[in-house]
């Protein structure tokens, strides 16, 4: 059983990435007893961002986040997607087995293409590159946020077509989605996302973090009146990080009107500082030591390329290349 997941380097890793992917992938990887594959989807980031220097910086940030949260480069496989280039070759092969209607129906394509002035073909075949990411490494469990579920279904569809035609070649992957979390809201209540610019960067300074939390949009219920926790982004974010008991206590305070939004934001801020204090410290140490990040990545890339090679050789053979 192989656990695999990736995060784009189109921006700094945010709280949604950490809760939706990093924490569950690290936990699932540990449970599996096998090396987990954690990668930085730098090729995917080219669909929306073209600045090389910025990509390099964001790639380091995402790698540092994986390491800060406990990815062990001696056990797990941490790598840049682009450094195992067989993935682009497999993308081409798989794209020839993918009905274009399947891609036209992808939510992410519909969402992103309606927001962008420049809709490139890369954005359209994005799910095929993602399928190649997963199938190349024969991964079976893919911890992701809810927004990626459809991409994994597309991956399964493509793999089935290929397997039916050529015999068992690819493992069929399954999404691993924590139902109680699913989608972490951003500052404006929509899904937290780099593209909506509504995200919380948990690695920024204390002051910056506090300011960002103050910007979370709430309704205008007065301080002493009961509030609906299930319609409040502050509560949703608190719940995503807090223990069960802490969540029950906060819910009670909301329902009884014993807490105002300002105080709830303050509690959220303090909780983020206390739960992620060690990771924040490790992240900033790593960011000042790029050599450590680079060594971890290169070690992972050697292992990733070896696994990729086995799959791509088998695929070429089936296809007559
Ligand atoms: P990306 O970079 O948009 O997000 C990385 C991971 O974070 C999760 N996530 C969230 N989870 C909960 N709430 C949110 N608001 C939230 N925002 C982001 C995403 O669901 C994802 O798990 N295409 C992928 C990257 C990718 C990948 C892969 C993932 C490329 N190849 C292969 C898994 C397997 C993406 O753009 O994720």
Automatic annotation (TrEMBL):
<dbReference type="GO" id="GO:0005524">
    <property type="term" value="F:ATP binding"/>
</dbReference>
<dbReference type="GO" id="GO:0006436">
    <property type="term" value="P:tryptophanyl-tRNA aminoacylation"/>
</dbReference>
<dbReference type="GO" id="GO:0005829">
    <property type="term" value="C:cytosol"/>
</dbReference>
<comment type="similarity">
    <text>Belongs to the class-I aminoacyl-tRNA synthetase family.</text>
</comment>
<keyword id="KW-0648">Protein biosynthesis</keyword>
<dbReference type="InterPro" id="IPR050203">
    <property type="entry name" value="Trp-tRNA_synthetase"/>
</dbReference>
<dbReference type="GO" id="GO:0004830">
    <property type="term" value="F:tryptophan-tRNA ligase activity"/>
</dbReference>
<keyword id="KW-0436">Ligase</keyword>
<keyword id="KW-0030">Aminoacyl-tRNA synthetase</keyword>
<dbReference type="Pfam" id="PF00579">
    <property type="entry name" value="tRNA-synt_1b"/>
</dbReference>
<dbReference type="InterPro" id="IPR002305">
    <property type="entry name" value="aa-tRNA-synth_Ic"/>
</dbReference>
<keyword id="KW-0067">ATP-binding</keyword>
<dbReference type="InterPro" id="IPR002306">
    <property type="entry name" value="Trp-tRNA-ligase"/>
</dbReference>
<dbReference type="InterPro" id="IPR014729">
    <property type="entry name" value="Rossmann-like_a/b/a_fold"/>
</dbReference>
<protein>
    <recommendedName>
        <fullName>Tryptophan--tRNA ligase</fullName>
        <ecNumber>6.1.1.2</ecNumber>
    </recommendedName>
</protein>
<keyword id="KW-0547">Nucleotide-binding</keyword>
């Amino acid at each position: 059983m192989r656990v695999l997941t990736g995060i784009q380097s189109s921006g700094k890793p945010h709280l949604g990435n950490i809760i939706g992917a990093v924490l569950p992938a690290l936990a699932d990887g540990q449970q599996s007893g096998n090396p987990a594959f954690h990668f930085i989807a730098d090729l995917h980031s080219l669909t929306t961002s073209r600045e090389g220097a910025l990509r390099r910086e964001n790639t380091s940030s995402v790698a540092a986040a994986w390491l800060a949260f406990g990815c062990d480069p001696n056990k797990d496989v941490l790598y840049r997607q682009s450094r195992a280039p067989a993935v682009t070759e497999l993308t081409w092969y798989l794209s020839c087995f993918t009905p274009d209607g399947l891609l036209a129906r992808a939510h992410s394509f519909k969402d992103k293409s309606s927001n962008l002035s420049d809709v490139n073909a890369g954005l359209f075949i994005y799910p095929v590159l993602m399928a190649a990411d997963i199938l190349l490494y024969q991964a079976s469990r893919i911890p992701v946020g809810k927004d990626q579920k459809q991409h994994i279904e597309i991956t399964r569809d493509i793999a089935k077509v290929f397997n039916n035609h050529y015999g068992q070649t690819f493992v069929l992957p399954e999404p691993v989605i924590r139902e109680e979390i699913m989608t972490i809201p951003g500052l404006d209540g929509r899904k937290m996302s780099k593209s909506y610019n509504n995200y919380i960067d948990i690695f920024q300074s204390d002051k910056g973090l506090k300011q960002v939390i103050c910007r979370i949009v709430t309704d205008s219920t007065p301080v002493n009146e009961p509030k609906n926790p299930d319609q409040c982004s502050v509560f949703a974010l608190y719940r995503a990080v807090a223990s069960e008991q802490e969540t029950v206590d906060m819910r009670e305070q909301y329902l009884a009107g014993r807490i105002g939004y300002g105080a709830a934001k303050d509690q959220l801020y303090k909780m983020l500082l206390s739960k992620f204090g060690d990771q924040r410290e490790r992240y900033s140490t790593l960011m000042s030591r790029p050599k450590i990040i680079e060594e971890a990545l290169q070690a992972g890339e050697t292992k990733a390329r070896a696994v990729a090679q086995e799959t791509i050789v088998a695929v070429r053979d089936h296809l007559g290349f």
